[in-house]
Amino acid sequence: MTLHTRVVHCGRLRDFFGFNRGKHAVLEGAILATRVHLIDRQQILDEFACLRVIVQKTAGPREHEAFELLEQYIGQSTGAPVR
User: Fold this and answer.
1) What is the pLDDT of residues 33-70, one digit of tens each?
2) pTM reported for the whole predicted model
3) Distance in angstroms (rounded) separating the CA atoms of residues 57 and 21
4) Angle of helix 61-78 relative to helix 41-58, nearest 10 degrees?
């Protein structure tokens, strides 16, 4: 049996940027940054340390820059250096 088809429509909502762990780590860091008043300071610092490893290994320049900004914000908000 042979089935013949033709494309009648194609489209996309946005380009697929892939499953980049660095991008997702920055997103997780941004979520943590919005919760500095809710989460224990040491827990935030510990989670940022784990996220930093992922960013260092898998992120691109834009993600590195964004993560540095988040670290600065966390440092100012908690009164403790993040690194």
Assistant:
1) 999 989 998 999 999 999 999 999 999 999 999 999 99
2) 0.74
3) 9
4) 170
